[in-house]
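Fold this: Hpt sensor hybrid histidine kinase
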Amino acid sequence: LGVDVPLVRDRLAALRSPHVEAALRERLQSTGDRLAAGLEGMSAAIAERLRLRAARVERIDALRKAIDALDELARIHADNATAQLVATLTTLLQPDPGLGAPGQGAPSLAEREATRERVLDLDIDSLERMHELELTVHALGFLVGRLDELDSNARLQAARAEFAEHLALLARRLADIPDPGGREQGRQVHQLLASALEDEGAFALRARELALRAQVETLQGVVGELTTELDALAGELIHRGGRILAAAGSAAERSATSGLIAFGVIAAALLLVTLGVTVHALRRHTLGRLRALEEATLALASGRREVAIDTTGDDELASLAVALERFRANAIERDRLAEALRGQQQELENQVLA
């Protein structure tokens, strides 16, 4: 676009020929300017969208690493809770103290009741909470993983609200971790995950990406319409240029025909004059002058303009020589005008082809 847009503007600015109507030239330049502005806007939007995507991918990578660390933490504490529950159940399954031999270390009835309460109130509850922590971490990982699939603001906002709910539940379950070091590690990871909901977080960046995508799609439609309009105007310009070329060709053909007729008339007149003054010319020894005029006439008729014409004297041949010299000057001027016309035709053809 950095090359094509200036090229389009330069080509449109080059349409300065007087043969191009001012209204058509203004329409072409106006459409070209709007097309260039649309292309530049679309290019800027695409570049910004790519920048946002790169930033979002970087943040998602950080979120995934944090979720992996949190998943490992949740798994460890779930295993610990399971081990604690197994140990408690093992205690409950020891032989009844009334049936076993005394002194074998079997728990008393009171100890069994206390252990049973512990199983019901602590161990099972702790295991459920750690298992819920694992499920919450998996849910957060799923939402982060499908962020690229959210292609509408409605779906994105729904996922954002769901992510916030899971974060709130995560905070409660992290507080249930019995190990202070584990709780602190979980708190730090929770802060990192919460950054996804900030103004420069992954969800906000995705929302801006969607807005830019809609902007690019709108600009694509506008650019398509302007391209069609510019193509139609270019076709109209080519059509008018063709008519101008046809008119110029007809004018050149008429000019050439007129020149040939004029040469024929002059040649006939010279022939009649030659016949009329033959006797007089012979008497005055002017046959050589008449022949020189005839040669000059034939040279002019053949397209040579560099012939020398003797206009000295005061007789009829001198007057004829003056007329022939005047005709030669007119022929030279006509040739110059024809050459200028051909140059103008070539310039117009170049502009139309460009």
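The chain has two domains: 4-95+106-225, 241-353. The chain is about 80% helix and 0% strand.
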